């Protein structure tokens, strides 16, 4: 190979290397731009206020119920128990502690 051919090939190789470097740089810039846009989307999503569910409030007082107090009268127990079940035990808004509190409230004597 003569010197002129070697110089031409060297120039072509330099041109190819320069093109490859430019291409690589363009890919890096494109990737960087994509990352910036993705970060901007994430930030805008995070800045959007999310709805907050209301915190349920619990009352410390039980509602007043009109029940007769049960004493040790076995004859009146079925009627009293039916009244207690319909007014207290079947209520889904009362937990077991509230139901027990009502049971203790509406029983008395040696029960």
Can you give keywords for this protein?
mainly alpha; 2 domains
Structure report:
It contains three helices and no strands. It is mostly helical and 111 residues long. The longest helix is centred in the N-terminal third of the chain and has 45 residues, at 3-47. 61% of the residues lie in helices and 0% in strands. The chain has two domains: 1-52; 53-111, no CATH class.
Summarize the structure.
The protein has 111 residues and is mainly α. It has helices at 3-47, 77-89, 96-105.
Indicate the topology.
Elements: H1 3-47, H2 77-89, H3 96-105
Helical percent range? 55-70%
Counting DSSP H or I runs of 4 or more residues, the number of helices is 3
Oligomeric form of this entry?
single chain
Major sheet characteristics: none
Order of helices and strands: HHH
Count of individual domains: 2
Structural class: mainly alpha
Provide the low-confidence segments as ranges.
none
Question: How far is it from the N-terminal to the C-terminal residue, by CA?
Answer: 118 Å
Rg from Cα: 42 Å
Net shape: rod-shaped
Question: Which range does the strand content fall in?
Answer: under 5%
Arithmetic mean of pLDDT: 74
Task: State the total count of DSSP E strands.
Answer: 0
């Amino acid at each position: 190979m003569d010197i002129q051919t070697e110089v031409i090939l060297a120039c072509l190789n330099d041109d190819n290397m320069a093109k490859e470097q430019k291409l690589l740089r363009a890919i890096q810039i494109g990737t960087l731009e994509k990352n910036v846009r993705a970060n901007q989307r994430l930030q805008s999503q995070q800045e959007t206020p999310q709805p907050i569910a209301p915190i349920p409030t619990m009352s410390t007082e039980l509602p007043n119920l009109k029940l007769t107090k049960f004493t040790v009268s076995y004859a009146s127990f079925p009627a009293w128990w039916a009244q207690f079940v319909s007014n207290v035990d079947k209520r889904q808004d009362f937990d077991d502690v509230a139901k027990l509190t009502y049971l203790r409230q509406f029983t008395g004597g040696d029960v």
